[in-house]
Amino acid sequence: MSKIMGKSYKYIFGPVPSRRLGLSLGVDIIPLKTCTQNCLYCQLCVDSPQVAERREYAPIEEVLDELKAKLAEKASIDCITISGSGEPTLHSGIGRLISEIKKISSIMVVVITNGTLLWNKDVRQSLLKADAVMPSLDACDQAVFERLNNPHPDITFDKLVEGLIAFRKDFKGQFWLEVFMVEGINTADAQIEKFKSIIEKISPDRVQLNTTVRPAAHPEVKAVSEERLKEIAAAFGPKAEVIASFSKKAASGSSESLVEQILATLKRRPCSAEGLASSLGAKQSDIEEQIKILLHKSIVRAEIINDSEFYIVI
């Protein structure tokens, strides 16, 4: 739970700067790591059982009350983004949430999803009123899907692709497809050709290539070079772009900047010291030193989740 200007928020975070979306106000309607997948590159660094059951994980009225309170603060916001700690389309009320947001605000509504439930007609219908939907496609076949994304047993690669194609046919908003590339897993020339064929069938407005640019928690996750990503983008065609950040600036350049980055990360979602170190490219010992100070000052609190200690902004 974050506390902003005296108001405590359980489901709202930000606004935070986003390279793709400007200042994004996050709406998090799913408990930590409640997801249809358990991706090797997941920033939450938590291994949890995959979930495929849709239900009302968070009361929509409470979410809307918090959103109205935040909007009343008149903060600068470019978009309202439904994403966060898990897969948002698992929430059975996401369609109603989008409709209600559109009634109270003219701000662009974006849904960031892994796309695994778009084979379900009800899920596709629930997202049609969004202004933009940003799903993922990290695999080019079932073998890569299982290795990289670790999906729920009920979700196959064919289902994923069929859902993306079906949704694209009905959706009138912006449809941006993110592809997370991992060296040695989904970057071979033959795999790129498979990707290209599938992406042409989906026909997104944009294809955005990403990779890990900091040491990842899982040893199999290796970064793809900027040069290789540019080659892949060229192979995919004019709609493709590289969105991975290859900034040379060290995250731990100073204690002050590291603290700011820790807090910015924790305002988005709870995270462990290991997860923060991986996400920020910093030494875990440096992260733990700053966390001790933040705990002492009661700026963050610790909570045990799945037998690991996570930190949450108070």
Q: Can you describe what's shown?
A:
With 314 residues, the chain is an alpha/beta fold. The protein folds into two domains: 2-246, Aldolase class I (TIM Barrel, Alpha-Beta Barrel), CATH 3.20.20; 253-314, Arc Repressor Mutant, subunit A (Orthogonal Bundle). The protein has ten helices and twelve strands. It has helices at 60-71, 94-104, 121-126, 142-149, 157-170, 189-202, 226-236, 255-268, 273-280, 284-296; strands spanning 2-4, 7-9, 12-18, 22-28, 79-83, 108-112, 132-134, 174-180, 206-210, 240-242, 300-305, 308-313. It has an eight-stranded mixed β-sheet, with helices on both faces. β9, α7 (226-236) and β10 (240-242) form a beta-alpha-beta unit. α9 crosses α10. It is globular, with a radius of gyration of 19 Å. Mean pLDDT is 87; it is low at 1-6 and 248-256.
Tell me briefly what this model is:
This protein is α/β, with parallel strands linked by helices.
From the alpha carbons, calculate the radius of gyration and give it in angstroms.
19 Å
Q: Please report the first level of CATH classification, the CATH class of the largest domain.
A: Alpha Beta
Q: What class would the helix/strand composition place it in?
A: alpha/beta
The major sheet is characterized as:
8 strands, mixed
Shape label = globular
CATH superfamily of the largest domain: Aldolase class I
- For the record, the count of structural domains works out to 2
Approximate helicity band: 25-40%
Element string (H = helix, E = strand):
EEEEHEHEHEHHEHEHEHHHEE
Low-confidence blocks of residues: 1-6, 248-256
Distance between the termini: 6 Å
Which range does the strand content fall in?
15-25%
CATH architecture of the largest domain: Alpha-Beta Barrel
The number of helical elements comes to 10
Lateral strand order in the biggest sheet: 3-4-5-6-7-8-9-10
